[in-house]
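Propose amino acids for all 88 sites.
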């Protein structure tokens, strides 16, 4: 797996996937790290208010697909620390 990314997003919940997709759509190389699977708390919801016709897992599936279609790489790893700056 490449380690040459412009943006690394820690967490692939709703906010992380939207941020990652937005960066990728602007031409940046993006990786989103998630320990288990994309979704965050949304995957536990069976009914979404103000979003008729869908469940949490269905929405997360669409958000994940949109991020991947934009070029985001989903990496399954636990992030324990972050170091700013240029990689050594």
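Proposal:
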């Amino acid at each position: 797996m490449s380690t040459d990314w412009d943006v690394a997003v820690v967490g692939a919940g709703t906010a992380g996937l939207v941020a990652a997709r937005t960066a990728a759509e602007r031409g940046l190389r993006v990786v989103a790290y998630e320990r288990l699977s994309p979704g965050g708390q949304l995957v536990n919801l069976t009914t979404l208010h103000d979003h008729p016709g869908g469940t949490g897992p269905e929405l997360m599936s669409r958000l994940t697909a949109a991020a991947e279609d934009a070029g985001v790489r989903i990496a399954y790893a636990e992030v324990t620390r972050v170091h700013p700056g240029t990689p050594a």
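The radius of gyration is 14 Å. The longest helix spans residues 56-69.
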